[in-house]
Write a structure and sequence with these properties.
5-stranded parallel β-sheet; alpha/beta; single chain; 13 helices; 5 strands
Length: about 325
């Protein structure tokens, strides 16, 4: 028997991976081709969610967990063996195959990693929902939380997100976005348990999707928008139609920081074409109101501007502290 005879051909191993975030049975065309052409299809997990769909398609799957050498032997004679990977990805098998290949003493079959299904963008959000569901059910602290009890954390996380943005720290930004997202998923999970008006994270997502589509007729409809100003006009018009508000001040949260509140009110009045004189009064409050309105008119966010100045002030304080410590050391 020579090295090129069919009996000596090393064959082929296909490690088929799937994503639990994609519905079972929705596999890529190359995956179905590999499964149908295989001489044997193996899976270590008899409860693998893909197996009923494979068998329904006429593919015979053997429940087996061969060692690396056994799998190599099964491929002898040019046979193709497809291994449907479990959720862990078969690390013991792949490590064993790597050791055999590294030994140089075994004629190895062709090895192929074939993704049979891919995660779509946003797929990891499903993991977050599942993790949150389990934490809500099993964690002594999380299972007792309410919307009201979590409210302060939503405020804190929003401020930390703003701080990360202003600091320009990309790693911190990614983390803080996750913390804000957690608040959304946590509140949505709590809302599922409401006896009178329950809703889920899917309802939350569905609502914002519908709102975005409705407020972007230039993207999803027949409207045209060439400039950011055109987009803003569409947004304000559709928002007004949705809310049916009697005052431009409706929907402005009074609990937000004072400068931001003043700027938001000024923006609403200006957008509505209202010429409202500023109230006159004594005290720093009226002076700050005038400054916030002036900043908004100039296109400046007064909260952001004040925070930037405050950071400079903080650095100056630290410098003065360091200088004071150095002077104290010099006098000793």
């Amino acid at each position: 028997m020579n090295a090129t005879s069919p009996e000596a051909a090393p064959g082929r191993v296909v490690l088929l991976t799937t994503s639990h975030r994609v519905a079972p049975g929705l596999l890529s065309w190359p995956a179905w081709q590999a499964l149908r052409a295989a001489d044997a299809v193996l899976c270590a997990d008899g409860a693998h969610p893909q197996l009923p769909y494979l068998r329904e398609a006429g593919i015979s799957v053997a429940e087996a967990s061969p060692a690396a050498q056994e799998l190599v032997d099964a491929c002898a004679g040019g046979r193709t063996v497809v291994v449907v990977a479990t959720g862990e990805g078969e690390p013991a098998l792949t490590d064993g195959l790597a050791r055999l290949a590294g030994s140089g003493r075994v004629q190895m079959p062709e090895l192929e990693l074939l993704p049979a299904s891919y995660d779509l963008p946003g797929a990891r959000l499903l993991d977050l929902v599942q993790v949150m569901d389990r934490i809500r059910a099993e964690c002594p602290w999380s299972s007792r939380q309410t919307h009201k009890g979590l409210a302060k954390y939503g405020i804190e996380e929003a401020y930390e997100l703003v701080e990360a943005i202003e600091a320009g720290d990309r790693e911190e930004l990614r983390e803080e976005l996750g913390d804000v997202l957690l608040q959304v998923v946590f509140h949505s999970r709590i809302a599922e348990e409401d006896p009178d008006a329950p809703f889920s994270v899917d309802d939350v997502a569905g609502g914002i999707v519908a709102k975005l589509i409705h407020r972007h007729p230039h993207v999803f409809g027949e409207e045209k928008a060439e400039t950011p100003e055109d987009v803003k006009e569409h947004w304000l018009r559709t928002k007004a139609e949705e809310k049916r508000r009697t005052s431009v001040t409706e929907g402005v949260p009074l609990g937000q920081p004072g400068l931001a509140l003043s700027a938001k009110l000024a923006s609403r009045a200006r957008t509505a074409g209202l010429d409202v004189p500023l109230p006159q009064g004594d005290g720093i409050g009226y002076e700050l109101l005038a400054l916030a309105v002036r900043a908004e008119a100039d296109g400046v966010d007064p909260e952001t501007a004040l925070r930037a100045a405050a950071r400079v002030y903080r650095d100056a304080i630290r410098a003065a502290e360091s200088e004071g410590e150095s002077d104290a050391e010099g006098r000793r």
